[in-house]
């Protein structure tokens, strides 16, 4: 085990040099480096906000069920299926059909051709709808895959909209990722107070324009409260909605200098807006955001230009936020914040400081201890410890891993545990020296016999680190990464670098005597 | 150095002690319970720093009592002027709780306050975090069981797992007894303890296996004693270096890492003890010998 060919030695140190060279990249702040790699600081070290959002698709599902009512009735009528007791619930439609029609209903529902009522989702190879039949009472609902596809598209759309809103606020380097099938993870480095962002993310921002209808004759009307607590009867009929908006900007109302939001409509929206305002001069138009009337001005004259102004007791901040929400579009389903963690920049700084201090102190303590215990070979163990640390940071840099406070703890723990490999080997050599006459032989056997133990011992810790990585979240993942990589670099530095240094000393000792 | 301590003579008394402490820990965990942090219980946590020296802990408490938000816990946290506020999870989730809390504190204390850390974990997420933490611990135990079973014989695998459960239960028992908070980082610590204690056990087991075939006339009692003695200096040196590193974190690493490093220190001490006094005696009770080892090997390679 002590013989190294020249090429092997070259390779060992070349590999070490390349890996550890990466660790020095962290010392430079230059952005236009040839290799732009760096260890990222976790939110707990640089400060920032972590938010976990959960989408609630229940309202969306019930909306989609509502949308099925008309095509369903149409299909049933077209096929001469008489239905009775038609009842729409939040997640299903119930109705009764004659016994002899059940078979044909099933055939129609699951036909692949031109099935607009129940489309076949090729991606999941399943139909969108499913039904159960008990004594001719049909219950029609979304199939598992149907719900999944609605959830997925709603989630993807929400991620897009959340990204637009966050980008619009101007946060630096946000991370927005899907987590599971109902959640979105948002990381906002450097954000000290996420309240405004939380507010903006939490709003569905469903905007629509509807006529105020105080006679209550027209089909369907909602009783909604306006901002000034005035109760208005607002027609259910939507003239146009946020989808027709092409732009929205905060502005100042030129009549009273109040902050307001000016918007521009697309062609379709402009046409509708023009038609309705021409017909209904004198009536009031309610501007409804998430089922709340923001303002309900009277139509003074036809608006045909396709642009308009929303005014209603805003502060400038509110006007800016409303414009931002309208620009980004409405969320398909409401989002709620299920987990939130915010670390202020000063705590992050303190953590970096105390983390590095304890790393340095722990490192020095271990080095001193090893030197006093093994002297010359303690020095070798310490050199291998330093190479180990450099390589660990090098690998973290190559992977552009995220360093967290528990991650620093992982590095310190690696320092404490890394010497174990060398200790195991040295102790074994000591034992062998008692029986072996040749020193070289003792070292050789010692390294060989300790090899299995060292591997066994380290693999167990590696298993723990891998499981921790798979199950841990955020900061804990950072700990698992440093611990896991630390084990690999420990094995490298103990079995290549420290073994080579040891062999160099043993083979070059003149009198063949080495004190361990 | 030729150490030859008689460890095996201590096995019986050590095992009785372990037994008693183990069951006391279980009782403590069951009846006193663990002090779960918001990670596992849900709720809101605010760490704040007050610049002014006159502010008392009661002032902060008073500034929150009239908010009527249920159970509130305020304590000093690390350096002077740092406080930690914990608000229990209420049934209906209040979307505006955090801004309301901040507002109430700032308006009542009338001094410069910096909010250093704000965390809020909903009931669903906390239940999931607890579940995945428990799964991770069980999975790591299963993985260790499997690894030792491949590398050694089943008796060793059983011994190692008993030692691991012993370590985890007693560490958590102490956390329960001392009412220390159990949060995500404690789960990380427990998993690391699993790795570390296993590491220690494997080193001794490796030597026992080697000695079993080397001195096939000796009985397991003597083999265990010999092996523990032979690996003793390694056991001590590694524990010392690991403890040195952990002490550095515990004393200098700041308040956030205190619980983690404390759990690790306990774990290293208990883990080192258990590899000598729990994992090894089990081989004795299972009557492991050169012959059983051969039998096991025959079964695998007929």
What is the end-to-end distance of chain A?
A: 18 Å
Low-confidence runs of chain B: none
Q: Strand order, main sheet of chain B: write it out.
A: 3-4-2-5
- H and E string of chain B: HEHEHEEHEHHEHHHHH
Helical coverage of chain B, percent range:
55-70%
Report the span from N to C terminus of chain B: 43 Å
CATH level-3 fold name of the largest domain in chain A: Multidrug efflux transporter AcrB transmembrane fold
Number of domains of chain A: 3
Structural notes for this entry:
- The complex is a heterodimer of chains A (516) and B (302).
- In chain A, the strands form seven sheets. In chain A, strands 9-10-2-20 form a four-stranded antiparallel β-sheet.
- Chain A contains 13 helices and 21 strands.
- Chain A has three domains: 6-46 and 346-508, Multidrug efflux transporter AcrB transmembrane fold; 58-147; 212-311, Gyrase A, domain 2 (2-Layer Sandwich).
- With 516 residues, chain A is of the alpha+beta class.
- In chain A, strand 15 (245-252) and strand 16 (259-265) form a beta hairpin.
- Chain B folds into two domains: 8-37 and 126-300, Multidrug efflux transporter AcrB transmembrane fold (Up-down Bundle); 43-121, 2-Layer Sandwich (Alpha-Beta Plaits), CATH 3.30.70.
- Chain B is 68% helix and 11% strand.
- Chain B has helices at 8-32, 38-41, 57-65, 97-109, 123-151, 154-177, 184-214, 220-252, 258-277, 279-285, 290-300, and strands spanning 35-36, 43-50, 72-76, 82-88, 113-121, 181-182.
- In chain B, helix 7 (184-214) runs parallel beside helix 9 and helix 8 packs antiparallel against helix 9.
- The longest helix of chain B has 33 residues, at 220-252.
- Chain B is elongated and about 80 Å long.
- Chains A and B meet through strand 20, helix 9, helix 11, helix 12 and helix 13 of A and strand 5, helix 5, helix 7, helix 8 and helix 9 of B.
Give the arrangement of secondary structure elements:
The complex is a heterodimer of chains A (516) and B (302).
Chain A: H1 6-23, E1 40-41, H2 43-46, E2 48-55, H3 58-78, E3 84-88, E4 92-96, H4 102-109, E5 120-121, E6 126-127, E7 129-134, E8 137-142, H5 144-169, E9 175-179, E10 183-189, H6 195-202, E11 207-211, E12 221-225, E13 231-235, E14 240-241, E15 245-252, E16 259-265, H7 267-279, E17 285-289, E18 292-295, E19 307-311, H8 316-328, E20 335-343, H9 345-374, H10 376-398, E21 402-403, H11 405-435, H12 439-471, H13 475-508
Parallel strand pairs in A: 1-21
Antiparallel strand pairs in A: 2-10, 2-20, 3-4, 4-8, 5-6, 7-8, 9-10, 11-14, 11-17, 12-13, 15-16, 16-19, 17-18
Helix pairs in contact in A: 1-10, 5-8, 9-10, 9-11, 10-11, 10-13, 11-12, 11-13, 12-13
Chain B: H1 8-32, E1 35-36, H2 38-41, E2 43-50, H3 57-65, E3 72-76, E4 82-88, H4 97-109, E5 113-121, H5 123-151, H6 154-177, E6 181-182, H7 184-214, H8 220-252, H9 258-277, H10 279-285, H11 290-300
Parallel strand pairs in B: 1-6
Antiparallel strand pairs in B: 2-4, 2-5, 3-4
């Amino acid at each position: 085990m002590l013989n190294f060919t020249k090429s092997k030695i070259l390779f060992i140190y070349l590999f070490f040099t390349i890996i550890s060279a990466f660790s020095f990249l962290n010392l430079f702040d230059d952005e236009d480096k040839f290799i732009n790699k760096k260890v990222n600081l976790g939110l707990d070290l640089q400060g920032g906000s972590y938010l976990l959002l959960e989408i609630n698709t229940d309202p969306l599902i019930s909306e989609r069920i509502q949308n099925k009512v008309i095509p369903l009735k149409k299909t049933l009528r077209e096929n001469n299926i008489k239905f009775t007791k038609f009842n729409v619930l939040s997640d299903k439609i119930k109705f009764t059909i004659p016994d002899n029609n059940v078979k044909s209903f099933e055939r129609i529902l699951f036909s692949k051709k031109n099935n607009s009522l129940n489309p076949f989702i090729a991606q999941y190879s399943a139909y969108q709808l499913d039904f159960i039949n008990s004594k001719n009472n049909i219950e029609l609902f979304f199939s598992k895959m149907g719900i999944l596809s609605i959830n997925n598209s709603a989630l993807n759309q929400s991620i897009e909209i959340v990204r637009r809103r966050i980008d619009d606020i101007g946060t630096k380097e946000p991370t927005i990722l899907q987590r599971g099938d109902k959640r979105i993870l948002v990381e906002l480095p450097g954000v000290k107070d996420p309240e405004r962002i939380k507010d903006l993310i939490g709003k569905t921002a469903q905007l629509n324009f509807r006529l105020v209808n105080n006679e209550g004759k027209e089909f369907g009307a909602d009783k909604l409260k306006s901002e000034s607590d005035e109760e208005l009867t607002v027609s259910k009929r939507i003239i146009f909605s946020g989808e027709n908006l092409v732009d929205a900007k905060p502005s100042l109302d030129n009549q009273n200098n109040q902050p307001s939001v000016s918007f521009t409509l697309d062609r379709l929206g402009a046409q509708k807006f023009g038609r309705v305002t021409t017909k209904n001069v004198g009536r009031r138009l309610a501007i409804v955001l998430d089922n709340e009337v923001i303002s309900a001005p009277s139509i003074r004259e036809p608006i045909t230009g396709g642009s308009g102004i929303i005014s209603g007791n805003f502060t400038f901040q509110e006007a800016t936020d409303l414009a931002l929400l309208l620009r980004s579009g409405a969320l398909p389903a409401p989002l709620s914040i299920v987990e939130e963690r915010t670390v202020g920049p000063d705590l992050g700084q303190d953590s970096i400081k105390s983390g590095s201090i304890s790393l340095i102190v722990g490192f020095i303590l271990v080095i001193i201890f090893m030197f006093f215990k093994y002297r010359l070979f303690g020095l070798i163990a310490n050199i291998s410890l330093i190479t180990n640390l450099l390589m660990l940071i090098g690998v973290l840099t190559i992977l552009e891993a995220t360093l967290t406070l528990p991650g620093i703890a992982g590095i310190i723990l690696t320092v404490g545990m890394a010497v174990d490999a060398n200790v195991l080997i040295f102790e074994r050599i000591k034992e062998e020296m008692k029986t072996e006459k040749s020193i070289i032989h003792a070292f050789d056997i010692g390294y060989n016999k300790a090899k299995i133990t060292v591997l066994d011992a380290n693999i167990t810790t590696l298993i723990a680190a891998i499981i921790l990585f798979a199950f841990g979240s955020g900061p804990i993942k950072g700990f698992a990464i440093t611990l896991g990589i630390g084990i690999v670099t420990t094995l490298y530095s103990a079995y290549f670098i420290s073994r080579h240094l040891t062999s160099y000393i043993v083979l070059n000792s003149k009198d063949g005597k080495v004190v361990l | 150095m030729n150490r030859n301590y008689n460890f095996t003579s201590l096995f019986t008394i050590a095992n009785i002690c372990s037994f008693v402490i183990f069951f006391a820990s279980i009782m403590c965990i069951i009846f006193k319970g663990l002090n779960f942090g918001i990670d596992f219980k849900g709720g809101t946590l605010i760490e704040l720093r007050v610049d002014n020296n006159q502010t008392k802990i009661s002032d902060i408490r008073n500034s929150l009592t009239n908010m009527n938000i249920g159970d509130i816990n305020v304590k000093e946290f690390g350096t002077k002027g740092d406080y930690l506020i914990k608000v229990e999870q209420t049934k209906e989730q209040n979307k505006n709780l955090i801004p309301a809390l901040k507002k109430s504190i700032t308006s009542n204390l009338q001094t410069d306050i910096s909010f250093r850390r704000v965390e809020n974990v909903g009931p669903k997420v906390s239940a999931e975090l607890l579940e995945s933490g428990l799964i991770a611990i069980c999975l790591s135990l299963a993985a260790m069981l499997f690894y030792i079973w491949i590398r050694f014989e089943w008796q060793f695998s059983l011994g190692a797992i008993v030692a691991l459960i012993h370590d985890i239960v007693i560490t958590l028992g102490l956390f329960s007894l001392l009412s220390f908070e159990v949060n995500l980082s404690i789960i990380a610590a427990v998993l690391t303890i699993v790795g570390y204690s296993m590491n220690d056990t494997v080193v001794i087991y490796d030597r026992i296996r080697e000695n079993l075939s080397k001195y096939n006339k000796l009985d397991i009692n003597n083999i265990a004693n010999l092996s523990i003695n032979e690996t003793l200096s390694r056991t001590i040196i590694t524990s010392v270096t690991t403890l040195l590193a952990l002490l550095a974190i515990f004393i200098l690493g700041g308040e956030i890492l205190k619980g983690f490093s404390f759990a690790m220190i306990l774990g290293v001490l208990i883990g080192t003890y258990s590899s000598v006094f729990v994992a090894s005696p089990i081989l004795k009770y299972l009557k492991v010998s050169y012959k059983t080892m051969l039998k096991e090997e025959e079964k695998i390679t007929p």
